[in-house]
Amino acid sequence: MEVTLRKAGDVYLNFQAPPSKSYTHRALIAASLALGDSIITNPLEAEDIAATRAALVGMGVQIMEGDRCSRVRGTGGTLSCAPGLVMDMQNSGTSMRLLTSVALLCKSPVVLTGSPRMKERPLGPLADALTALGGRIEFMEKAGFPPVKVSGRLTGGRARVDAGMSSQFVSSILMAAPYAHRDVILDLDPGVASPSYLDVTLSVMEAFGATVEREGYRRFQVAAGIPYRARTYEIEGDYSSASYFFALAALCGGRVRVGNLNPTSCQGDRRFLAALESMGCRVSTPGDSVEVSCDGYLDGIEIDMSSSPDTVQTLCMVAAKARSPTRISGIAHLKWKESDRLESTTRLLRSLGGDVTVEGDALIIRPAPLHGGRIDPGDDHRTAMSFTVLGLSMGNVKITQAECVSKSFPGFWEQLAGQGLV
User: Which residues are part of the catalytic machinery?
Assistant: First the structure.
């Protein structure tokens, strides 16, 4: 699928944020391990979520799909994994990482595999920590990378976790920890990537009744023997996906309002709004909506986006149209995403005339005249959506592999079409 974008003038638009992918993954896992039946309302329906759901079903969880809800029959932490079970996580890094620890609750070994790109995404630090907690992780092809065979038991105890590449290594262990034989204590090395996602993990765990003590992002302790409790849980809207709509106001000028958002959410990508304000936009929060307006004049900023990784590319698009340079730091871990986003963002922005350089863990974007062109996102959903927004601000940009947005936001093109933008 290819989409050719024409230039949009001042925009005055209303959108709805899709449900949060991060919350949906975690809520499905907690509900699957809980005692009793849970109802997850407003879950995201996307390829990544389908991978997590299919894997949970493969481990014996019953999940019934209804109208904008999922009814999950909890297992109480006793999973029914058939001998020789192989779970294909496809291209979902969240599914791979979170479910690696959950697989330790199976009585027989489980193999987790995925797409060719998944086999290039690191898993070694998680395997090291799980080994210290009683698991056995066998790398079946390349040391430190999927596919992996998971066996042993989650006995618990103390482990140190290097989360410099992904906080999901920590979230994975935390999600399964209530079912360890004894308390789990995790000590984190300095420099945790995307630490705000740990807040999302803890909010879901505590909502389902787990007991977690923490010392900032340095240490976590989860009490064993206190299982998740079934409940009805509503998924809030996704700030990562909403960022593309906010960026439309910044790049095209005008006003965009996005509904289905929690103004006090702990999602780290909410910081994208503060970045837009610093660049010259105006932000307000009427009810459960967020509104961004802009006169089209943007100033560059210096900002650390280590807690907001999924909006970095969107911010790069806004920065490319600013009147002064922007420096975005704390983003070295973007090279381990669905693509190497540092490399692809730099290369693709340059193909449109942008002035971009990588300096250590930072991207530097300087003012430069931009022109149209062809964008191949390399099957990376966020690359496709972020360059779509830039393309709408200038026109004559073609997005190839446009269907890859279904990984996290299947309704993206439909929402834009509903506003007459594509």
Answer: 310
